[in-house]
């Protein structure tokens, strides 16, 4: 019996340690105006983003994000961008979380986030910075260490891009939703767009290819302009 108990304890302990926040999570709530808001958080390796938008109209409400780490049950986040209050940029905050395979909760916060995915099945899960763009047939490289950044964070099924500046603390815009990667095609389904709510509901298909670890992305923008971008994973 003692051996059986120890084995069970080992199995349970291994299961707990194997739990990961990597992937996408969601929570729904109704605000004072009776509108249903959707909160979505995406965790990639080392970076995360939390966004709130109207679940029906896609109207953008808020986003913030940056670096994260987890030691035991203590999560620490360092803010790189904040759509409401630039004074948060550069600051770190630590808090306790409760994590299971299917739920995520900050201790002391009544909201429980349910898992959307665990970083699969999409081929582009991670945090990416735009590192190049083709203009007039010529590739122009972009220094990813500069404070002005365009970042995309993807889970296995969710994506979000964010334009911001860590030096000036300016937030320029964001958009996101769900995505798929099939047969060399990357398809975005836009669910929110901070600059133009009329873009909500659009689906955009691009060709994509991973070359030497970089994401090559080509097609047409939501405005109908041709584009060719290169994205590099963040360290």
* Cα gyration radius (Å): 19 Å
Please report the number of helical segments: 1
Element string (H = helix, E = strand): HEEEEEEEEEEEEEEEEE
CATH-level-2 architecture of the largest domain: Beta Barrel
What's the gist of this structure?
The chain has 1 helix and 17 strands.
Give the arrangement of secondary structure elements.
Elements (H helix, E strand, L loop, with lengths): L1 H17 L4 E8 L5 E9 L2 E8 L5 E12 L2 E9 L9 E8 L3 E4 L6 E5 L8 E10 L2 E4 L6 E7 L3 E8 L5 E12 L2 E9 L9 E9 L2 E7 L5 E8 L2
Antiparallel strand pairs: 1-2, 1-8, 2-3, 3-4, 4-5, 5-6, 6-7, 7-8, 9-10, 9-11, 9-17, 11-12, 12-13, 13-14, 14-15, 15-16, 16-17
Could you walk me through the main structural features you see in this protein, from its secondary elements to its overall organization?
The chain is mainly β. The chain has 2 domains: 22-117, Lipocalin (Beta Barrel), CATH 2.40.128; 126-233, Uncharacterised protein PF14869 family, DUF4488 (Lipocalin). Helices cover 7% and strands 58% of the residues. It contains 1 helix and 17 strands. Strands 1-2-3-4-5-6-7-8 form an 8-stranded antiparallel barrel. It has an 8-stranded antiparallel beta barrel with strand order 9-11-12-13-14-15-16-17. The model is unreliable at 1-18 (pLDDT under 50).
